[in-house]
Structure prediction request, 902 residues.
Amino acid sequence: MSTHTEQQAPQGREPLDVNDPRLSRFEIVQEGARRDDIEIVHYEPQFVPGSKAERRMTRTIALFFLLTGLAATAFLIIYIWWPWKYEPGRGGDKYYTPLLGLTLGIALLGIGFGILTWGKKLLPKEVSIQDRHDQPGSPEERKITGETMLYMADELGVRRRPLLGVSLLAGLLPVGAVVAAPLVGGLISDPHKNNQMFTTGFKPVDGKKVRLVSQDGRPIRPADVSVGGQLTVFPGIKDGVSNKHADSPTLLIHLREDDAQQSREANARIGHGGYMWGNYAAFSKVCTHAGCPASLYEQQTNRLLCPCHQSQFHITDNARPIFGPASRRLPQLPIEVDEEGFFVAKSDYTETIGPDFWERP
Amino acid sequence: MKRRKFDVAAVPAKTAGALDDRFQAATPLRKLLNKVFPDHWSFLLGEIALFSFVVLLLTGVFLTFFFEPAMTEVVYNGSYAPLRGTPMSAAYASSLNLSFDVRGGLVMRQMHHWAALLFMASIVVHMLRVFFTGAFRKPRETNWVIGSLLFWVGFLAGFTGYSLPDDALSGTGLRIASGIMLSIPVIGSWVTSSIFGGEFPGAILISRAFIAHVLLIPGLLVALISVHLGLVFKQKHTQWPGPGRTNENVVGERMFPRYALKQGGFFMLVFGVIALMGGLFQINPIWYFGPYEAWTVSAASQPDWYVMFLDGSTRLMPAWEINIPIGDGYVIPPIFWPTVVLPGILVGISLLYPFLEARQLKDYKHHNLLQRPRDVPARTAAGAMAVAFFLVLTLTGANDVIADKFHISLNAMTWAGRIGLLIVPPLAYYVAYRMCLGLQQHDREVLAHGVETGIIKRLPDGRFVEVHQPLTAAADDGHGELDYVGWVVPKKMNRLGALGPAIRGFFYPIERPAEAPVSPGHPPVEARPEREEITSGESRR
Prediction:
């Protein structure tokens, strides 16, 4: 196969007789391409067959494939014999995944580069030109197809027999609804069942006030939270410390004396007098923006920051949002200490917990 | 009776004949083998997406063998000592088992995640290529629409996928998703409780996300990708303008053998790179995050990169709450705008863009030749504006990390994002527009006056001028005019073959001098019959 460059063949060319024994295989290929409106205008081997350069290229490609074999074998050996079970500390198992990735990666890259080099460097370069044939169908063809479709409509004769159309529609509409019904009906769930969107785990059970407990379920005494400190507390009920009560986590904050004074005044302004107990205040931990736990409490400025979207709440001003996308203050939990000296919730939250929604009153 | 001798050499031909007898495959097969593809590096971007999708399917099927999509509470008792004895969901426990107790499971998990990131990234880059070169114009609007949908479906695939392990990070993501759904006016709470099966988090979501992630969404992706590829095949690929290339032909290589071989090799490269990343670069180490608990979160909780722009828009949104004082009062929370309305607008604009542009330019012709971005300044500038918009939002999605690492006030970062979102995109539009005009002008200067040679000549009167090499023989008036035809104008002398090519060979020079590099977009420069003296472009003014 030698370098082959030619001009576009003239139109109306006689097809070659492919059974002609004098034709080379390439000429037959070229004839096939022509029948598909493809003209191979340039075809050029990159190497003289058997030349030193070609042999060098062949060796390079072979090297890639051998590298693949080696890496793949290494992968198998590592996969089978390398200690892979997790051990605490800096054991060899920490290298298991990186080694697997490394050997697998090298193996695949080896095949990839091998094949690519083969294709790009050894195979002849070519330029072929193919006609697009993306002209739209002739007006005549379009008309025929259009008429065929209209003919089908005519044959059905819906226009002549309107009853059919109406009854079909009347029949199909309910069927469509039947298809949708199980999906909608099965999935739909009333968000206001048991008033769940407006209550939390702190709702008194049978008139008994719910205790505030820590993550390990122990009730909390005022002495458990130091001045300026804070603690995440949960309702002391069954599954209170679990995702089943995802709306209940609450931040119990022990404010400093002057901050507590400020806070009490702010409470009084909005009719929340008595929500605090001593210098302790409890706010919902569920951000009113998107529901993340607003948990980064900055003691010095009394700001609570939600790490998801950086809403900031001013704790001593009724947890009013002062920066970021949140538009509603964190609800405050009215608390007191029961006769045994543990924190309890006086009542459930008096405002809705968590992200805002349409019908929140 | 004489037994016929079995002729091994004739078997392939006979089989082929037998097949053609039954399926009449010879002609269509030849057409397929001969199909011509134009070649350019930028046409490979979409293939990266396709190949990473294949890797996603392969690794994903492996993962399903071990993952248990249930929110049942179990106590972890696997190999990872720090979490032993911790109550967690079965989904999280099985994800830990996949990482620690399934041999090679972690590398598969990480490859799956990296492939997903690469899938989305290559979709975006491919989309930019198609946009800036005008490849979406008639007749390819349908494929543009499908491609845009692929981004959003891929977005869903990614989100459902990384929600599955039920670790602290993904649970927080789901919590935010529930907050977003809640914000939809009128139906928000119903939608949320229907999807989560009650109040967040419920006990069913992981199973639902799982079936969406492994069946519904991949099914949709496969369908969309098939149509996308089918249309590329049917409508034939666009090509850059160049010698011999017209709107009616395709200039390139036949699919077999060279083009297909290169594709196969490229697939292996993509696969190999994903394997390297999956092994060497840790991603989503769920064991550090712990199980999802509604009260835990940490700073620097970022979603995967393709979700970050929505996170950013959420952070920038001012706290504008709309209250509707009817009855008990109704609310449209601020989170509704950046997370529901904004993506809605973005989907709309991206789907409609080809039609809007055609309408604006009253251009309803077939276009099979690509445009250089500089030749369509308005579109290029609009694209730059969109990219700037996306970048500002994405950076804002990480503004807490940036604030922390660079010791910037967090609030200042938010304000910078808010102001930046309004100022940077128009600025990008203006700059891109001017750059396009400048590049256009320079192209025409070179066509009119020639290539700068870097040779400074001193004229008899003492002036210094730079010698220019004209690209064409000078006409009578001394100006050789070449028309701009939409492809690359050579601007360096070595593009004209004036300099010898670099010596090839890694350790030793390869003796045979290589051809001067000619990229597909370049017109071949033919030597003129008689060499003229290099003249100065300046002297012709």
Chain B touches chain A through 111 residues (CB under 8 Å). The radius of gyration of chain B is 30 Å. Residues 410-449 of chain B form the longest helix (40 residues). Strands of chain B lie at 36-37, 73-75, 87-89, 249-254, 322-324, 330-332, 451-458, 464-469.
